[in-house]
Amino acid sequence: MKRLLFWGLVLIAAYQGWQKFRSHDVTLAYDPGSPYVIVYGRDSCGFTSQMRLALAREKIDFDYRVVDEAAVADGLHWKMERLGISTLRYDLPVVEVNGKLLVRPDINQVMHSYNEG
Questions:
Q1: Among 21, 32, 52, 84, which residue carries the largest CB count within 10 Å?
Q2: For 81-108, what is each residue's pLDDT tens digit?
Q3: Residue 21 pLDDT more than 80?
């Protein structure tokens, strides 16, 4: 019985690890060489709302992803860790521009990175 319980826990852990790994592929679904913007934030965050309004005002198309969704948070944290950015505590929004992550940037920083791509 103990062996069955052990293997059951191993299978559950393996499945959860696979799910986390698999979810990252969705966030990388952009054409190389095409400029893009993804805003990671939450609806209740004033800074996130300001960034979304500023991007709309500049007529920049962007994807908006809510970090309260587990798969979104996992994908963002994976990217942040890969780039050496701490995930323990960070300000929102985090804006991904052409593969570069910017933590609570202003619109000028985003526009500069967007125009470089």
A1: 52
A2: 988 888 988 999 999 998 899 999 999 9
A3: no
How far is residue 22 from each of residues 18, 27, 71, 72, 117, measured CA to CA in Å? 6, 10, 9, 12, 27
Bridge-based pairing of strands 63-66 and 100-103 is unpaired
Mean pLDDT calculated for residue range 7-17: 66
Mean pLDDT of 41-54: 96
Structural domain of 94 = 2-116
* Tally of domains in the chain: 1
Nearest to 76 by CA among 98, 49, 61, 95: 95
* Buried b / exposed e along 27-48 (16+ C-beta atoms within 10 A): beeeeeeeebbbbbbeeebeeb
| CATH number (domain holding residue 96) | 3.40.30.10
Cα Rg of the chain (Å, integer): 17
Q: What share of the chain is helix, strand, coil (3-state, %, to 5)?
A: 55, 15, 30
